Amino acid sequence: MVSDTSVSRPRIPISQADLDEVIRRHALFQSGRHGGQRAMLSYHDLSRLDLGGKNLADGDLTGAVLAGARCGGTILNSAILFGANLAQADLRGADVRRANFTGADLSLANVTGAHLDDADFTNARLSDMIGMKS
What we know:
- The chain is largely without helices or strands.
- It folds into two domains: 12-39, no CATH class; 40-134, E3 ubiquitin-protein ligase SopA (Pectate Lyase C-like).
- Helix content is 11%, strand content 3%.
- It has one helix at residues 16-30; strands at 12-13, 44-45.
- Strands 1-2 form a two-stranded parallel ribbon.
- The radius of gyration is 15 Å and the shape is globular.
């Protein structure tokens, strides 16, 4: 008999104000300043929040839900988005170079003008992605 070992984790809701504080502290972390803390948003629900133009480079968004999130111009280079849900997310002009999208859902995401160099899309769901160059 084969057992199902998959685990479903609930997502942690976060408000726009709390997300803005995480981003502020991440900026301090990136510049090596006191009070800084790496953005740890694993398993958070960021659905429909505004991350536009923010810098989350090297952030951890493992399993996060960014469905319908506004991420135009967001810097996510080298971020971990393993298993994240980015369905219908707006990633126009985003910098996702070297980001890890392994197993992520990017269906209907708009990546027009996004910088995708060296991003890892292994086993990612890319169906009907908008703006993906072949």
